[in-house]
Fold this sequence. Notes:
It comes from Actinocorallia herbida. Residues 174-293 form the DUF7064 domain. By secondary structure, this protein is mainly β. The chain is built from no helices and 22 strands. The strands form three sheets. Strands 1, 2, 3, 4, 5, 6, 7, 8, 9, 10 and 11 form an eleven-stranded antiparallel beta sheet that branches. Strands 15-14-13-12-22-21-18-17-16 form a nine-stranded antiparallel beta sheet, with no helix packed on it. The chain has a two-stranded antiparallel sheet with strand order 19-20.
Amino acid sequence: MKIVDHGTWPLTPADESLHTPGAEPLWNESYYYDFAAPDGSYGGYVRLGLYPNWNRAWYWACIVGPDREPLILVDDFAPLPSEGTDLKTEAYRATQTLSPDFAKAHIVLDGVTASGTRLAFDLEWTTEGGVYPYKDLPRYEVPCKVTGTVTAGEEVIAVDASGERDHSWGERDWWGVSWLWTSGRLDDGTYFHGMQANIGIPLAWPCFQVSPSGTLDHLDGFSAETVFGADDLPASSRLRVPGAPLTAVPLAFASVDVTSPTGQEAVFPRALCRFTADDGRVGYGWAEWHQPPAWRDHGWSFLGEER
């Protein structure tokens, strides 16, 4: 499996597994799995966050769409697994199985949401193009083909979609830093990804593209501008992917609120989006606009907010 030579540590297949926790109270190991239908009619994601020094796990899963009621399972108090990454509670069972060569990830969930509705996933993420490690951060992103089924109440959805998965480990302070993250696939087969965090100084933020032929290239220099509505939810974002600028418009939100060990509240708007490139290509995927406490006062405008 191709790994783009962009990271500052030697990424190996062993990194798909769990890492030795650091001493930081908010040290976290995180796995994300996104998917979006080629016509934008549905999309979903799973996130598993392990917090060994906080003695808990976070587990989120959802299915949304512009013409369907969002169905979201959120558990920020899951028991930390004694080993591995499988979760079992009274409300759900969740597993992930990763191949030893970055080629595939298989996610199984069977649970009941707070509304009493069944939500079940049996989905496989198959790598498209290769693996992209971040520079200077212990994190990598993997563009994927996503297939399988989602059960939402009585409905069974046959999933044939595109998506992305990522894996990161290290300290993550959800209550101190704002960020924008996005990934998607355009109708010509191009995958893209970009991320920009507010740390108070301008940087060449990481991004990549996978061409329709399957070539994965990193492209430093991503930036974004966002228009927010009166409800603080993003209305659109201008995504400056080098050589292929895009506009993202949210179609359906699956937002989560998160509380720190000291009681601070942060809002995590995440949405299935339609992407329109300046050259006319369109596509679908996901974006997130993380909003920690006082996010407007401590520099979200650095990300180019248009008021």
